[in-house]
Amino acid sequence: MTQYVYAFSEGSKEQKELLGGKGANLAEMTKLGLPVPPGFTITTEACRSYLAAGTEPGELRVQLTMALRRLEDDLGRRLGDRHDPLLVSVRSGAMHSMPGMMETVLNVGLNDASVKGLAEESGDERFAWDSYRRLLQMFGKTVLEIDGEVFSNALDEAKSAQGVATDVELNVDSLKGLVSTFKAVILEHSGDEFPQHPREQLDMAIRAVFDSWNTERARLYRRRERIPQDLGTAVNICTMVFGNLGETSGTGVAFTRDPASGHSGVYGDYLVNAQGEDVVAGIRNTLSLADLKDLDPSSYKQLLQVMRRLETHYRDLCDIEFTIERSKLWMLQTRVGKRTAAAAFRIATQLVDENLITMDEALQRVDGAQLAQLMFPRFDAAAEKTRLGKGMAASPGAATGQIVFSSKAAEKAAAEGQAVILVRKETNPDDLGGMIASQGVLTSRGGKTSHAAVVARGMGKTCVCGFAELDVNSAAGTATVNGEVLREGDMISIDGSTGEVFAGEVPVVSSPVATYLESGLDEALKDTDPDTGELVRSVDRLLTHADSIRRLRVRTNADNAEDAARARHLGAQGIGLCRTEHMFLGDRRVLIERLILASGSEERQAVYDELLPLQRQDFVELLTAMNDLPVTIRLLDPPLHEFLPDRTELSVKVALDRAAGNPDPDEERLLAAVDKLHESNPMLGLRGVRLGLVLPGLFALQVRAISEAAAGLKAQGGNPQVEIMVPLVGSVMELFLIRDEADQILATVAQEQGVELDIPIGTMIELPRAALTAARVAEAAQFFSFGTNDLTQTTWGFSRDDVEGGFFATYLDRGVFMVSPFESLDVDGVGRLIRIAATDGRKRRPDLKLGVCGEHGGDPDSIHFFHQVGIDYVSCSPFRVPIARLEAGRAAVL
Amino acid sequence: MTQYVYAFSEGSKEQKELLGGKGANLAEMTKLGLPVPPGFTITTEACRSYLAAGTEPGELRVQLTMALRRLEDDLGRRLGDRHDPLLVSVRSGAMHSMPGMMETVLNVGLNDASVKGLAEESGDERFAWDSYRRLLQMFGKTVLEIDGEVFSNALDEAKSAQGVATDVELNVDSLKGLVSTFKAVILEHSGDEFPQHPREQLDMAIRAVFDSWNTERARLYRRRERIPQDLGTAVNICTMVFGNLGETSGTGVAFTRDPASGHSGVYGDYLVNAQGEDVVAGIRNTLSLADLKDLDPSSYKQLLQVMRRLETHYRDLCDIEFTIERSKLWMLQTRVGKRTAAAAFRIATQLVDENLITMDEALQRVDGAQLAQLMFPRFDAAAEKTRLGKGMAASPGAATGQIVFSSKAAEKAAAEGQAVILVRKETNPDDLGGMIASQGVLTSRGGKTSHAAVVARGMGKTCVCGFAELDVNSAAGTATVNGEVLREGDMISIDGSTGEVFAGEVPVVSSPVATYLESGLDEALKDTDPDTGELVRSVDRLLTHADSIRRLRVRTNADNAEDAARARHLGAQGIGLCRTEHMFLGDRRVLIERLILASGSEERQAVYDELLPLQRQDFVELLTAMNDLPVTIRLLDPPLHEFLPDRTELSVKVALDRAAGNPDPDEERLLAAVDKLHESNPMLGLRGVRLGLVLPGLFALQVRAISEAAAGLKAQGGNPQVEIMVPLVGSVMELFLIRDEADQILATVAQEQGVELDIPIGTMIELPRAALTAARVAEAAQFFSFGTNDLTQTTWGFSRDDVEGGFFATYLDRGVFMVSPFESLDVDGVGRLIRIAATDGRKRRPDLKLGVCGEHGGDPDSIHFFHQVGIDYVSCSPFRVPIARLEAGRAAVL
C-alpha cells in the first residue's frame, strides 16, 4: 500500500519531493523538538494520483481518517466538536516555492455548532465568530471559487453599518451577521449550503489545494520559473493555533539574517492579535520584531533560540513564520530564505567564516545569474524617472545617452565623446560599429534572440528590444512612443535588466563587482564603503575558489585583439571561437564581392593576394593579445551572399532603374551574382566546409594567413598557440580533404619561415551527422568544438530567425518549451547528441579535446551539463567569462 | 605472422575479400581438380599494408621468395632460367570486379638469356622472341608508365618494314629488332635499363599492380560503382601457359549460358594461336566456341565438362577464360558472370527448375534495379535516331511526343489525345497537371533531385533534366539546342534511362513486365512470344515468392484515388503517406490565400467552412479506393507561403506598378501577406505541427474532414482504415497538444454520426530531436513514420534545393559521398537516428508501428536496412511498389 499521509513526526527536510517544501520543513522542525502544532502531510504522490484520475485514491481516504483520528486522540479533541473543537489549517506546499500561487484554508472544522464550543473553550465569543467568518470567506473564495470581492464588499458594509474602520473593531453581532451573509452568498453562488460536516469541509479543501496546482496562473508561473508541470503539490493539515486571541497573542515573520544585505541580526515583523493572513494583507502596520522583546520577553527569547537552532541546523539563512497564542510560541513554517544577489555572496562567505559551511558549500549558495546581476551598472533607485514603457530585457545593464538612429551617427557621436543610445527597428551585421560606439541599443522589433539582443549580450552591452510601442522613422530622424515624439539628440535611458525605457537622463550607479573583475581587487576596494568592500571580497573569495576546483576551462569568443584583451582580464584562458567572417565586413566587403564575381582562378587569386596581408595582420594582433594561450580560429563559415545586398531590394532597384531607362551596369552585375548565389534555405546551403571545398583557394588563404602569423610571432620569440577549426563538417571525408590541403600549407610555411609549427586542426560539431559519426570524424579531428547554436537549429529543425519571427512565443505559452533551447541547452535532444559525440569521439581518440563555442557556453544550467559529459572547456562572450568560471566551479562540487 | 601469400591450393571461393575475386576462384578451381596452372595469390591485406606504408611489408618479401621456390620446385623449373625458364603472369584481382581498371603483366621471367632457353625448350624461336617483345611492351607501359603509343608505333614500323599486316606475320628478325627497340625506349623514357633480373621484374610488377589500385581512373570507377576505396587489390602470380604456340594452341572466353537472354547452351569465342590479350584487343576475328569442336574435339569435350562442373559447383552462370597450349586445356579464370536484367530473372528460375538452387536463393540472383529496368518501355534499338545531346537520366523510360512549353498546352493537347513532351527550364508544383498530361518531361536545369525529377519518378514518368545545351524560351514558344531551333509541336524523344534526347519520333517498344504488373499474368501473356512469356513467368514466380516470405509490408505514397488504385494493382498494401498539400493547389489555392489574409477567427472560419466539404470529399475518394487497407493521412506540412507568389517577383511587380502610378490594391495586399510570411529559411520555419499549433482551426478542419469521411463510409458499410499523421514533431508536447484537440473532434464526429471511430494518431519522425527523444514521443504516438527526406536534410544540415544547386556535384566528385544521401539512405548518420528511434520507441510502446514514407522507402539498398532495424512497412511511389516488394523479399532471406 502506498503511504499517502505522513505525520509531521515521520518526515524530514530531505523529503521535499514527496512532502513538499513546507511539509518537509515542518517535519524537520518537529524532529528538532521545536514547538510545531501537530499535524500531517498528504503527499505530492496523492496529488498526482488525484489529478490523473480526477478523484482521490481510495487509500487516501482511509489513511486520512486514520491520521485524523490519531491527531484527535493525541490532542484529546475532535474535529468540529461542539464543545472543544479541533480546528485545522489546510495549506498547499509544493516541492518548489510558488509564493501566492496556491491555496490555503484556515479554521477548518468550524460550523454552526462548533463555533459555540470554540467561544466557550476560548472564553472569547468575538474570536470564535471572527474565526468562523474567516473560514466561510476563505472556503467560499478558495474552495468554491466565488469572487473574493463579494465577501470583502459585505465585510465593508458590516464595518460601515457598525461605524468602525477595521476588522478588529467588529463586534460579535456584526460578526454573527456577517456569518449569515457569507452563508447566503455561498448558497447563492455555489448552489449549495456551506458544508456543516467538518470532514466534508476538509475533503473539499484538500481537493481545492490539489486543483490549485493546475490553475492557469500556477501553470504560467511554473513555466516562467522552469518548474516541471507534473510534480503536484503536497497538502499540510495542521492544528490551528491562534494569534488573534487578544493582546498576548500575535503572529510574525522573521529572517535569521538580513535577506537584502546579508548582515547578521534579527529581521522580521510582528502583529499583535492577528492571524498570518493579516501580516501578508498589510491591513495594519506591523511592529518590528525587536518590539516583541518588550511585549513578551519570554517568547522573544525562545524565538531567538529557535532561530539560532534553525540557522545552525540548516546552515543557511532561514525565514520563518510563527504565531504566539496566549504567550505560547508556535512555529508554523521555515525554509531557507530567498535573498538578493549581494546578500547571497555575503552570507555564503560569512557562513564559511562562522565555520558553518565549507568553501565548496559556499559555492553552492551563489550562482552565475546572481554574479551577472552584480556586474551591471544600475539606475539610481532614488532618481526621478519618466517611464515611456517596457520592451524585452534583452541584455542587462543601465544605459543612458542621446538618441541616434543610425550606426554612422553613433560612430560620429562617439568619436566626439558623446554617449548615445542606438535606436533602430532592428539591427543587422552592418550595425556592429554603431553598437560598439553606443552605450546601449533599443529596438522596436525582435526578441531575446534577435540580432541586436545576441550581439549586445556578446558585448555585454545594455539592450532592450521588441519595444513594440516605439515607432521608428529613421529617415525622418524621429520615433514616436504613444504619441510622444523623440528626436535624434534627445536623451533616453534604457534598463536592460527590466526592459524599461525612460525619457531623459537617469543617473547610473556603476558596479564595484565589475570594477573588481576588470581591474582587480585593489582597484575595486579604492574609496569603497565597508559594505561594498565586503561584497567585493566575497565575490573574490568565491570566484578564486571556483577557479581552484573547476575542471572546465573557460575560454572566450572573440574576433579581435580588443575583445581578446578584455576577456583575458576577466579570466579567459584562451579563445574558443574566433569568427573570421567579421573580418570581411566594412572596407573588405568589396573584396568579397570581387571574389564572388570573379570569372576565373586568376581573378580569384588576385583577391586572395590582397586579402592575405590583411588576414595575416588580423591574426597577428589576435595571437599577440592571447600569447601563451590557445586561440581557435574558425575558417569562414557563412554563405557568401551574406556579404551581398538583399536580393528582393536589389531586384526592385534594378527593375525601377531599368523602367526609368537608366540601368546601372554595376548593379545589374551585382544582381546577377546575387541571383546566382541565391538559396532558398541559406542556413542549409553552401557555407562552412562546403564553401571551402567548392571555392578553390579560400580556406587555403586563411590557413596560410594563420600559419604565417603564427610563424612570424614564433620567430620573434612569441608563443602563439593557434588551432584551426573547420565549420559545418558532416562527414569525416570533408575534414580529410581540408586537412590534406591545410597540412601541406602548414608544412610549406614552416619551411619558408624556418620555424616548427604545431597547429592542431579540429572541427565544429554542429550538425547531427557529425555527432552521430563522431568516431569516424575523430580520425581526422584533433579536437571537437560543439557549435550548440547550429546544433540546436538542425536537431530541432528550426532556425533562430523563425524562432524570432513567430511561433516561439506560442511554444513558450503552450508549454512546448520551458525555456528557449537557444538560451539553455536542450539536454534531452541536443544534449544526447553531445553525449554521443563525446563518448564515441573519445573512444576513437582518447586525448580528443572537447570544447563548446555556442552561446550555451555561457549559460549556467548548460555549463553543468557540459561538465558532466566531460567537456574540457567552454567558450563564451568576454562578459560571461566570470559567470562561466563560477558555474564551472559549482559544477565541480555538485 | 600475417600470411600474405596463399598458394592456389590453399584458398577457396569464399575468400574473395582476402584473395580478390580472381584469386579466390583460381583457388576454388584448383580445389575442384580443374586444370589450373600452378601459382599463388598475394593478399589484399598486403596491398593495404603497402599503400599505407608506401613500401611492401618485409614479411611479404620473405613469403614471396618461399612461394616462388615452392612453385619452382613443384614444376622443376626456375624463374628466368637460361635453359628451361619458368615464366609467370602477374595479374591484379580485387574483391569486386573492376574490368579494365587494373593491370596485368605477362611473361615475367624473360630476359636476354632466358628468351633463348624458352626458344630452345619450346622449339619455337619466333614464339620466344614474340613473348619477350610482349613482356617489354607490357612492362614498359604498365610498370614504367611509358605511353603505350610509343610501343605500338614501333610495332607498326616493324610491320611496315617487313611488309606485313599483322603481328603474327612478324618474323624472328623483326621481333629481335623490336626487342632492341623496346629496350631502348625503356632506357630513354624511364632512365633505366629494363631489369634483367627476374625477381626484380616480379617485384616491380607486383608494386605496379598495388599502385594501380589508386589511379584516378580506378578511384572514379569505384566511386561510381559504390565500391569502398580502402579494400586494396590482390595480385595473382600464375605459371604462364601459352595459346600462341602454333595451330594446336589458342585462347578463348566462354559462358555457361547466354548472358543476354539466359538461355542455356554454349556461348563463347576462340582464337587460334593467340594469347588472351589478343581476344580482348579484337585484333583478329574470333571463331565461335562451337568451332573448337572440329579443331580440337578432345579439348572441346574437356572444356564442356569443366563448364558443366563449374555451373553445378557455382550453381550459377559462370564465365571463364581458358588457354589451350599444344592441345592441353588450361583454365585461367572463372567467375559468376554478369548478365542482363531479363537473363537474371530467367536464369534464376531456370536454376530452380534444374534443382540447382532454391526459390530463396533465386531471389538473391535478381534485384530491384533489374526489375525496374524491365518495367520501362524502351526505344527500338534498331530505329534510326537523330541525337540532339544528353542530359541527366532523371526518371527512366522512353517517351516521344510533340513539344509543349507550358502545362496548359500539355493539358490541352492531352485532352485532344495527343502525346506531348513538356519542355521547361524547370518545373514547379503548378506543373503537376501538365506533367500528368505529358508522356515525359525535359528540363534544361536541375539535377536528379530537382522538382521535375522527383515528381516524375514518383509518377513513373520519363524525365530527362539538366539538359544544359537546351535554351528554352517559353514566351517565344521555341527552344534551341546548339543552334537548332525547336518549336512547339515539333516531335521529340527522350530516353530517361540514358539521358539522351533525340529529334523526331523514335519508335518505342513497350514492356511486357509492366503489363504483367499492372494487369496481371494472363493479360501479359496474351499474344506474347515464348521468350517474353518465359521472362514474365519468371518475374511472376520471383515476385510471388518475395511476397510470401517478406516481413516488410509495402505501402504507397498517394494523394488521390487514381494513384491509390494504380498502386493497389501494383501490390500496395495501403497508403503510407497522403500529402494533403496537393489538395490545396489549383482552384483551392485562392482559399489558402484568403486564409492567410484573414484578419480574424471569423474570416478564417468562413474559409474552413468552404474547405470542409472539399477536403471531406478528397478523403472519401481516397479511402474508397483503399477500402480495407490502411491509409495514413499527413496533416498539412508545408509553410503557407508556398501557396503564395514568389516574394522577389511580386516586389518587383508592385514597385513597377507603383512607379507607373498604377498601384494594384490586390497585389499590394498580397505583397503585405507575402512579406509577413517571409522566412529566411522556410525549410526551418513555420510549417508542419508548428503551423497547426499557431494557426487556430487548420488541423481541426483536416481532422474533422478525415473523421467525417471515415464515419460516412463506415455508416455505408465500408471499411476505411484511416490513420492521422502529424508532421515535423520535435517534442512530445507538440503531439500531446494536437492529440488533445484531435481526440475531441474524433469523439464528437463519432457521436454525431453514430459510428465507432478507431483512428490511430501518429507522428512523422523527420527531425533528429524526434528520433533522439523517441521514448517520450512514443507516449503520445501510436505509430512512427520516418520521413527520411527531411531527416536527411536536418541530420546533414543541407536542403535538397542546395544539393541541386551546386556543391553536391563537387561532393560526389571528391568522394564525400558515394551516392546522394537523398537517393540511398545514409546508414551511418540518418540510419543511426532511425535505429535509436526504433529501439527507444518500441521500448516505451512495444506495439509501436514503424513505417518509412520518405523516398528511400523505394530504394533497394535502403529497404534492406529498414528490414534489419525492424521497420513494419515502407511506403513509396506507386511505380516503385513492385521493386520494394521484391527487395523486401530479398531482405528477408539475406
TrEMBL record, chains A, B:
<dbReference type="Pfam" id="PF00391">
    <property type="entry name" value="PEP-utilizers"/>
</dbReference>
<dbReference type="InterPro" id="IPR002192">
    <property type="entry name" value="PPDK_AMP/ATP-bd"/>
</dbReference>
<dbReference type="InterPro" id="IPR013815">
    <property type="entry name" value="ATP_grasp_subdomain_1"/>
</dbReference>
<dbReference type="InterPro" id="IPR040442">
    <property type="entry name" value="Pyrv_kinase-like_dom_sf"/>
</dbReference>
<feature type="binding site">
    <location>
        <position position="634"/>
    </location>
    <ligand>
        <name>substrate</name>
    </ligand>
</feature>
<feature type="binding site">
    <location>
        <position position="789"/>
    </location>
    <ligand>
        <name>substrate</name>
    </ligand>
</feature>
<feature type="binding site">
    <location>
        <position position="766"/>
    </location>
    <ligand>
        <name>Mg(2+)</name>
    </ligand>
</feature>
<dbReference type="InterPro" id="IPR036637">
    <property type="entry name" value="Phosphohistidine_dom_sf"/>
</dbReference>
<dbReference type="InterPro" id="IPR015813">
    <property type="entry name" value="Pyrv/PenolPyrv_kinase-like_dom"/>
</dbReference>
<keyword id="KW-0067">ATP-binding</keyword>
<feature type="domain" description="PEP-utilising enzyme C-terminal">
    <location>
        <begin position="540"/>
        <end position="889"/>
    </location>
</feature>
<dbReference type="GO" id="GO:0005524">
    <property type="term" value="F:ATP binding"/>
</dbReference>
<keyword id="KW-0418">Kinase</keyword>
<feature type="domain" description="Pyruvate phosphate dikinase AMP/ATP-binding">
    <location>
        <begin position="294"/>
        <end position="347"/>
    </location>
</feature>
<keyword id="KW-0547">Nucleotide-binding</keyword>
<keyword id="KW-0670">Pyruvate</keyword>
<feature type="binding site">
    <location>
        <position position="788"/>
    </location>
    <ligand>
        <name>substrate</name>
    </ligand>
</feature>
<feature type="binding site">
    <location>
        <position position="579"/>
    </location>
    <ligand>
        <name>substrate</name>
    </ligand>
</feature>
<comment type="similarity">
    <text>Belongs to the PEP-utilizing enzyme family.</text>
</comment>
<dbReference type="Pfam" id="PF02896">
    <property type="entry name" value="PEP-utilizers_C"/>
</dbReference>
<dbReference type="GO" id="GO:0046872">
    <property type="term" value="F:metal ion binding"/>
</dbReference>
<feature type="binding site">
    <location>
        <position position="787"/>
    </location>
    <ligand>
        <name>substrate</name>
    </ligand>
</feature>
<dbReference type="Pfam" id="PF01326">
    <property type="entry name" value="PPDK_N"/>
</dbReference>
<feature type="binding site">
    <location>
        <position position="766"/>
    </location>
    <ligand>
        <name>substrate</name>
    </ligand>
</feature>
<keyword id="KW-0460">Magnesium</keyword>
<dbReference type="GO" id="GO:0016301">
    <property type="term" value="F:kinase activity"/>
</dbReference>
<keyword id="KW-0479">Metal-binding</keyword>
<feature type="domain" description="Pyruvate phosphate dikinase AMP/ATP-binding">
    <location>
        <begin position="60"/>
        <end position="285"/>
    </location>
</feature>
<protein>
    <recommendedName>
        <fullName>Pyruvate, phosphate dikinase</fullName>
        <ecNumber>2.7.9.1</ecNumber>
    </recommendedName>
</protein>
<dbReference type="InterPro" id="IPR000121">
    <property type="entry name" value="PEP_util_C"/>
</dbReference>
<keyword id="KW-0808">Transferase</keyword>
<feature type="domain" description="Pyruvate phosphate dikinase AMP/ATP-binding">
    <location>
        <begin position="17"/>
        <end position="53"/>
    </location>
</feature>
<feature type="binding site">
    <location>
        <position position="790"/>
    </location>
    <ligand>
        <name>substrate</name>
    </ligand>
</feature>
<dbReference type="InterPro" id="IPR018274">
    <property type="entry name" value="PEP_util_AS"/>
</dbReference>
<feature type="active site" description="Tele-phosphohistidine intermediate">
    <location>
        <position position="451"/>
    </location>
</feature>
<dbReference type="InterPro" id="IPR008279">
    <property type="entry name" value="PEP-util_enz_mobile_dom"/>
</dbReference>
<feature type="domain" description="PEP-utilising enzyme mobile">
    <location>
        <begin position="419"/>
        <end position="499"/>
    </location>
</feature>
<dbReference type="InterPro" id="IPR010121">
    <property type="entry name" value="Pyruvate_phosphate_dikinase"/>
</dbReference>
<dbReference type="GO" id="GO:0050242">
    <property type="term" value="F:pyruvate, phosphate dikinase activity"/>
</dbReference>
<feature type="active site" description="Proton donor">
    <location>
        <position position="853"/>
    </location>
</feature>
<feature type="binding site">
    <location>
        <position position="790"/>
    </location>
    <ligand>
        <name>Mg(2+)</name>
    </ligand>
</feature>
